[in-house]
């Protein structure tokens, strides 16, 4: 729709109108600065207007090194990008997944900005069960690779817990497989496939969480008992945690008066419970109420003997999904996987395998060159025969081939931040001020570059 000259609408008028739309709307100018950001997308991305208005996208959101914002892509190409799924991180480090339709905005044939219409894939997946269509293929204990003693112990405890009517608390780092374990317990209890309901406390607004957690609707939504999987409780508002405590106490009383409850709570924490209580993220009464049966899910770095079997499992899974014929992962890549620390745990390995298989053509073996670009930057190509530079060159290590520019810049960033941390005695606030960035931005870069573990003593302030 064209607007006659002299009738341009006030931007506040437009902003208020967009707040009534049930899809996310994000508008940027030619420089990638946000000028409109409606209520729906604020809920999706757990952000406030003040966090992003008049700021560049790249200063607020973090994208994988080999990916680019669809808004910035449209600004560069001046062509629409439709129906693209995109994952990225907000300024608090929370991952968001959206499905985008993005268009250039033109005035007198000149591109002056871009507009993105967004559907929230991550939140839809988080409470898809509430909408009546739970995942059709849930994990079972048969899907677990049980090479390592830690996983064998976890499977034993999970099967034992599934024979009880108790609520269950799963603890372990994000991405370690807590939801997969919850699904396995659900299936071991012989509950219906469509009776697994998942709620993620990280990104849903408080009002929506209250509706999902406490609405009577959940007790009559399916025929027969169901599992209510409540993920990342440390991110739940403390007032809702207290209300959930009361709800679970009542559930326990009712469950003891019947042979089979209407629903089975399985809850998770991605932080150490004691640390979460001391930092004020977790209500102590809630923890004591829900920790009657607690199962620990180990991180991938503590069970690296499972890596090869996990790779085989994911390759078979994605072969079925993508209709491909990949057979195996090369020994060189497996060795790199053993050396890597996997801060994103099993989920990170799954994403690396998925992205690698997308990059393969007719090959049947996954090689180093197939790995995602951002992941390859963490290593040198094990098959590389390029000559190395003299060790006196800046930031070039002895025996290491010359780096790509992106890798060099990443290493330079890591080096400089580490020196700044040391100079300010690992005080996060002072270091962030000295580097001219926000605490959140610095925390993200510390995590990305795995720097915080390198401190000699003390904790970041």
TrEMBL record:
InterPro entries: AAA_lid_NorR, Homeodomain-like_sf, HTH_Fis, P-loop_NTPase, PAS, PAS-like_dom_sf, PAS_4, Sigma_54_int. Residues 10-75 form the PAS domain. SUPFAM superfamilies: Homeodomain-like, P-loop containing nucleoside triphosphate hydrolases, PYP-like sensor domain (PAS domain). Signal peptide: none annotated. The keyword Transcription regulation applies. PANTHER family: TRANSCRIPTIONAL ACTIVATOR ROCR (PTHR32071:SF74), TRANSCRIPTIONAL REGULATORY PROTEIN (PTHR32071). Keywords: ATP-binding, Nucleotide-binding, Transcription, Transcription regulation. This is Sigma 54-interacting transcriptional regulator. The keyword Transcription applies. Pfam families: AAA_lid_14, HTH_8, PAS_4, Sigma54_activat. Residues 144-358 form the Sigma-54 factor interaction domain. It comes from Jeotgalibacillus marinus.
């Amino acid at each position: 729709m064209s607007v006659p000259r002299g009738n341009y609408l006030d931007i506040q008028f437009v902003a208020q109108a967009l707040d009534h739309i049930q899809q996310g709307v994000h508008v940027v100018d030619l420089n990638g600065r946000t000028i409109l950001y409606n209520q729906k997308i604020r809920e999706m991305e757990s952000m406030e207007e003040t966090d992003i208005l008049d700021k560049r996208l790249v200063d607020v959101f973090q994208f994988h090194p080999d990916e680019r914002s669809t808004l910035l892509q449209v600004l560069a190409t001046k062509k629409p990008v439709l129906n693209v799924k995109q994952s990225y991180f907000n300024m608090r480090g929370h991952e968001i997944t959206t499905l985008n339709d993005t268009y250039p905005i033109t005035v007198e044939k000149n591109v002056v900005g871009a507009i993105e219409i967004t559907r929230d894939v991550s939140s839809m997946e988080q409470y898809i069960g509430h909408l009546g269509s739970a995942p059709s293929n849930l994990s079972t204990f048969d899907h677990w690779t049980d090479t390592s003693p830690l996983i064998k112990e976890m499977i034993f405890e999970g099967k034992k817990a599934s024979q009880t009517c108790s609520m269950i608390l799963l603890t372990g780092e994000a991405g370690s497989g807590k939801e997969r374990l919850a699904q396995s317990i659900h299936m071991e209890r012989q509950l219906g496939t469509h009776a697994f309901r998942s709620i993620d406390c990280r990104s849903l607004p408080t009002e929506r969480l209250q509706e999902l957690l406490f609405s009577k609707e959940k007790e009559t939504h399916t025929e027969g008992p169901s599992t209510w999987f409540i993920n990342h409780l440390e991110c739940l508002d403390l007032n809702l945690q207290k209300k959930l405590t009361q709800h679970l106490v009542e559930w326990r009383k009712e469950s003891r008066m019947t042979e089979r409850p209407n629903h089975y709570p399985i809850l998770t924490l991605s932080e150490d419970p004691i640390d979460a209580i001391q930092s004020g993220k977790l209500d102590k009464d809630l923890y004591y109420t829900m920790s009657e049966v607690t199962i620990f899910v180990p991180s991938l770095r503590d069970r690296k003997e499972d890596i090869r079997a996990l790779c085989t499992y994911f390759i078979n899974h994605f072969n079925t999904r993508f209709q491909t014929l990949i057979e195996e992962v090369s020994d060189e890549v497996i060795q790199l996987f053993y050396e890597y620390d996997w801060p994103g745990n099993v989920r990170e390995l799954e994403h690396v395998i998925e992205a690698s298989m997308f990059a393969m053509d007719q090959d049947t073996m996954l090689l180093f060159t197939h790995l995602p670009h951002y992941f390859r930057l963490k290593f040198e190509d094990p098959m590389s025969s390029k000559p190395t530079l003299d060790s006196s060159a800046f930031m070039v290590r002895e025996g290491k081939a010359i780096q790509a520019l992106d890798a060099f810049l990443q290493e330079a960033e890591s080096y400089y931040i580490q020196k700044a941390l040391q100079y300010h005695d690992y005080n996060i606030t002072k270091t962030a001020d000295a580097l001219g960035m926000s605490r959140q931005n610095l925390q993200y870069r510390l995590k990305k570059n795995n720097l915080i573990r390198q401190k000699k003593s003390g904790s970041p302030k």
